Amino acid sequence: MSSQETPRATGAFQINMDHQWLPFTANRHFKQDPRVFVAADGMHFTTHDGRKVVDGISSLWCVGAGHNRQPIAQAIKKQLDTLDYATAFQVSNDQAFEAAQMIADLCPGDLNKVLFCNSGSEAADTSLKVALAYHRARGEGHRHVFIGREKGYHGVNFGGMSVGGLPANRKVYGAQLLPRVDHMRFIHDPVNHAYIHNQEPVWQEDPLLELEGRILALHDPSNVAAIIVEPVAGSAGWYLPPKGYLKRLREICDKHRILLIFDEVITGFGRMGTNFGADYYGVVPDMLNFAKCVTNGVIPLGGVVCRDFIYDAMMNAGAPDYAVEFFHGYTYSGHPVSCAAAIATLKLLKEEKLFARAGEMSPVLGDAMHNAFKGLPNVIGIRSLGLAGAVELAPIPGAPGKRAYDIFLDCFHKGVLVRSAGENLVLCPPYIVEKEHIDQMVNTLADSIRKHA
Ligand code: PLP
Fold first, then answer.
1. Do 441 and 403 share a structural domain?
2. How close is the Cα of 60 to the center of ligand 1, in Å?
3. Residue 395 gets which letter from DSSP?
4. What pLDDT does 1 receive?
């Protein structure tokens, strides 16, 4: 610590905030108004200054089963005392196989082969690399084009950022994004479907006409390796696909032998009241990316689940048995402690029937949001489906995102953690949420929307 670095008083104890560069955070503002958690249990955090804050966003979609779940903590402790770590290359560990089997069992169709990684961003890049390697293995190595969607989010690594469509995440890196990438149009209709109340919006027009008519025609479908979408656009602010959209996307991909990747980092493991978004929408992708919720947030783990034919093509590409089939992997792929946490989490979610509970609480949340927010100043849309919802506000002219950010801060100080995403405020509580928590979240948010009119 240099002589200029001064520990700051932040309530009950002192924290030196000079060294952590905070991710996706307004660092300068944070230091004027620190928001530091020191403990969590069930639905609540405790802050550094001893206040309780209700977790309205499952700590960014991760903590489905609520905080401080002892079966998960105990499984991690036990695993640390048994096999703390083993390299993942050319050897493996028992926990990774068991976790892979449990995940494959939850997946629809023949999504059976799990490639582990450590985050949603790594899952995105892994899935794009699988797509290229798969096509090459079956003699179509010219398929290089990836297609994402405007406002899609697939993490922050170069592949995911390139197929992603959030302008703020891309603009600084534009010159070095992947070259052969295109984007489908966004799936929001602010005129006819600004308000979506616990049901799939039915569009009169087909939003995928431009995919076949323009994008695929431009690149030629025979050059396209994969299309990647989030079943519901989560990070952008909970934007829901029109009814039939994902089925139609599946048909288009089948017709042109393009791989369909669902990025289920947010929609996976119960958020829609089903195992995955794929189950909710009745569409089986060729790859399914997961991360959040699989360990209840307590330790990093992500992965890509591939359909059998992808794995088979890679195994049967004609190389000798001793050859590595896919030159890809992370030092911590299938880490035994993360996988032990995943096993315990998936058991807990099953024992407590928490996916079903998310489904049951979904209309409770959606109804509360629509009742509380409709007609409030600046509200221009409300969208609810699954155990999540967003209220969209008119921006302050010349200050994009500021209104939502100010409301997020205000709610935090009133004891509710909400998420600001662009002009949206998002609620996506843990599946253990009770009606009283929902009322607290929604009433606090409504007061704050009024206050910031
Ligand atoms: N993909 C989706 C759909 C996400 O929502 C996220 C994170 O919010 C990611 C990828 C990136 O995950 P991570 O932050 O674990 O890298």
1. yes
2. 10
3. P
4. 41
